Amino acid sequence: SDIRQYAATGRLPAASEVDGILERARERAFRHHEGKVADYIPALANADPEVFGIAITERNGRVHQLGSYDHAFSIQSISKVFVYALVCEVIGHEAALKTIGVNATGLPFNSVMALELNGGHPLNPMVNAGAIATTSCVPGNSAAERWEFIQSGLSAFAGRPLAMDEDVYRSEALTNQRNQGIARLLNAYGYLKGDSDETVDVYTRQCSLLVDAHDLSVMGATLADGGVNPVTGKRIVGEQVARDALAVMATAGLYERSGEWLVQIGLPGKSGVAGGLLTVAPGKGAVGSYAPRLDEAGNSVRGQVAAAYLSRALGLNLF
Ligand code: DON
């Protein structure tokens, strides 16, 4: 009954009960041994596939966490959500809709075909093309200023200064010819503001920012809270922007698996190839998790299982 009450009121059951629910989420997740740690970015291949961390931050700032919730990993594609929110705040809802787009691609995150099929339009900020287009809209007079805007903005979402993983950054910078190709195509079609190589460099840096499962939950809870970080009390983005960011997560946050995710979990989600996964319950809070083995679309296998259990156990499904 506590749980049904949570669905209705947004208040979680007592902390001890939530701890039990988190334990059961981990137990469900560890029934799964399939999936592979990402290796197309060489530095990510070193991750220990058995590490698991999970954290919930509620809209009132209460935190529940378990396992290696403080294990640092690179944020990767989960950065796309927050850079999109920060850019929307600057360029506005209408311009973001027009120049970046919000429709699902139904294709892998690094698809070039999605671009070509749509006259070069990036389509959605959760896939690489749209995220690179978004990063190209970051304000600043130099790459250094644009990077500072992103690093300080994502730090404000997390409520603490986030640092970059230099090894991951270097490793990806040496091997991201595909993203460079996507950026050049965007440029050729007129959807990139600024220089393509410089934009990809800033994008690669944003993907290399180090977070843990706890940070992800606070960042997500800021969106659940209409743009106010529930731990620091600071407003980071406006309410409309927070809503837009959650909506685009729902459209393509898990790439070509986004429909299955929405049917199974019923909440906006966003994955990253290092193994992070963010699930947001609008108006209630957010779950951050880390488990590096990925499915074929690049989404954490154990993270998805844990999110599905929590969504059911806490009555979070929006539908
Ligand atoms: O651009 C890339 O390929 C990586 N920096 C991020 C991709 C990613 O995280 C896809 N997600 N699951």
TrEMBL record:
EC number from the UniProt entry: 3.5.1.2
A biological-process GO annotation: L-glutamine catabolic process
SUPFAM superfamilies xrefs: beta-lactamase/transpeptidase-like
Keywords of this entry: Acetylation, Hydrolase
Single GO term (MF): glutaminase activity
Catalytic reactions of this protein: L-glutamine + H2O = L-glutamate + NH4(+)
Record's protein name: Glutaminase
Annotated source species: Bifidobacterium psychraerophilum
Top-level taxonomy: Bacteria, Bacillati, Actinomycetota, Actinomycetes, Bifidobacteriales
Gene encoding the protein: glsA
